[in-house]
Specification:
Blueprint: H1 4-28, E1 31-32, H2 33-40, H3 44-57, E2 60-65, E3 75-79, E4 85-90, E5 95-101, E6 107-114, H4 120-134, E7 142-149, E8 152-154, E9 159-163, E10 168-171, H5 173-181, E11 185-189, H6 190-201, E12 210-215, E13 219-225, E14 228-229, H7 261-264, H8 266-279, H9 285-288, H10 297-305, H11 312-333, E15 337-341, H12 349-362, H13 364-368, E16 372-375, H14 382-399
Parallel strand pairs: 4-7, 7-11, 12-15, 15-16
Antiparallel strand pairs: 1-3, 2-3, 4-5, 5-6, 8-9, 9-10, 12-13, 13-14
Helix pairs in contact: 1-3, 2-3, 6-14, 11-12
This protein binds zinc ion (ZN).
The site of zinc ion (ZN) has 6 residues, from loops.
């Protein structure tokens, strides 16, 4: 007689083997069954059984044989990257974006909706509207919904504890979406999504220790430590935008004063640029924005790149503030690689150089092992980065890939 425990153990082993084989094919495929057995230390029989199941599920595919010197050429097995699709949503910008992705994180379709200042329930309704638009476009079985959201997220409960700009407090977003659509849902902090995307799909794939710093409307860091996402105590790890950097500084959206966001976010840069435009009639800003109200981070970047002398000190100051914060991250966490993204980083290499210089000067470790500070590799579209990371949480949780 098989006991319940034995059954459970058997099911667990089977699930473990399935995930191990799928992960091996995902990371290293195409592979022969023999190569999978070598890589996983599973027996040839087990690998054959698991592959048969994954083939039936469509998660892997056979792609013909490779020529070898002697004997029967082995058939190679590769990922069935379109066996499942994922819908991922980015809620971190001034519009909501949803995309359909395959198992390799390749984007198949996109939809977006302007937020127009909606908060609370109205903002949740916009998510429903966006999903109602994109879900009918899905053509493959859905693995689930991945949501990249700003703010403090209780990841195990898919609960948004606090997202100031969207007016959300203790919003059970995961639960609400799961009930409405009957799908698996994962909610992840936007900065954590960004670093996860680089870790899984980017040029810095599998780099165990790195930080992605997003500098846009808000500023935050997603931290990968020893190949694991750093979750901290759930009270907002990586919220560097709300560390005070100016004594008696300007009031921040969080209620404190002098936070990094008050001096280095796109909001802060635009505010300073508007003041410059009002005072300096020879500023290049006037060429790119007909009125002061039309100045955006995009027009500030254009005027800076055209050589506006009034913007030089603004970019220097932003770089110094960011550099100091990054020097702290590098020192505390011993991080060898920092990747930047976000609208403020569109100032490009002049900004990057100021940041590097600041880190070199301020971090002792920076003088011994200079950390690599670069732009993210994946995409210049910040939204895609968050979307890919939100999709990746489903790959991790539903299929056991990575992490
Ligand atoms: Zn703040």
């Amino acid at each position: 007689m098989i006991t319940v425990t034995a059954k459970a153990t058997h099911a667990q082993t089977r699930r473990h083997n399935n995930r191990l084989v799928l992960k091996t094919v995902y990371d290293q495929g195409p592979l022969s069954r023999a190569a999978i057995a070598r890589s996983t230390n599973l027996t040839a029989t087990t690998v054959s059984t698991v592959i048969a199941e994954l083939l039936a599920d469509g998660l892997v595919e056979e792609i013909g044989a490779i020529a070898i010197e002697r004997g029967k050429p082995p058939t190679l097995v590769t990922l069935g990257k379109d066996a499942r699709h994922i819908v991922a949503v980015d809620l971190s910008r001034n519009y909501f974006q949803a995309s359909i992705l395959n198992l390799r994180g390749e984007i198949q379709a996109r939809e977006q909706l302007p937020i127009n200042g909606a908060t609370g329930e109205a903002a949740v309704d916009l998510i429903y509207q966006l999903l109602d638009e994109i879900l009918p476009l899905v053509q493959k079985p859905l693995l689930g919904l991945g949501i990249g959201a700003p703010g403090i997220i209780e990841r195990n409960q898919n609960l948004i504890r606090h997202a100031a700009n969207l007016g959300w407090e203790n919003l059970k977003l995961g639960e609400q979406l799961a009930a409405r659509y009957g799908l698996h849902v994962q909610v992840i902090n936007d900065n954590q999504a960004a670093v996860l995307a680089e870790f899984l799909f980017g040029q810095y794939k599998q780099t165990p220790d790195m930080v992605v710093v997003r500098v846009g409307n808000g500023i935050g860091a997603g931290i990968m430590c020893n190949g694991q996402l750093l979750h901290g105590n759930g009270a907002g790890v990586g919220e560097i935008g709300h560390v005070m950097v100016v004594e008696n500084g300007e009031r921040c959206t969080c209620g404190n004063e002098g936070c990094l966001e008050t001096v280095a976010s796109s909001r802060a840069v635009v505010k300073r640029a508007k003041a410059i435009a009002q005072q300096e009639f020879s500023s290049y800003l006037h060429q790119f924005a007909p009125t002061v109200d039309e100045i955006t981070i995009g027009t500030v970047v254009q005027a800076f790149q055209a050589g506006d002398p009034f913007l030089q000190p603004v970019v220097e100051e932003v770089g110094q503030h960011l550099g100091r914060m990054i020097a702290n991250l590098v020192t505390v966490l011993g991080m060898p690689r920092i990747l930047l993204c976000g609208s403020v980083t569109d100032f490009g290499s002049p900004l990057l150089e100021i940041i590097r210089q600041e880190v070199r000067q301020r971090a002792l470790s920076g003088r011994i092992h200079e950390p690599q500070i670069d732009m993210v590799s994946l995409t210049t579209n910040l939204s895609d980065l968050v979307i890919m990371g939100a999709a990746a949480t489903l790959l991790a949780n539903e299929l056991g890939l990575f992490l």
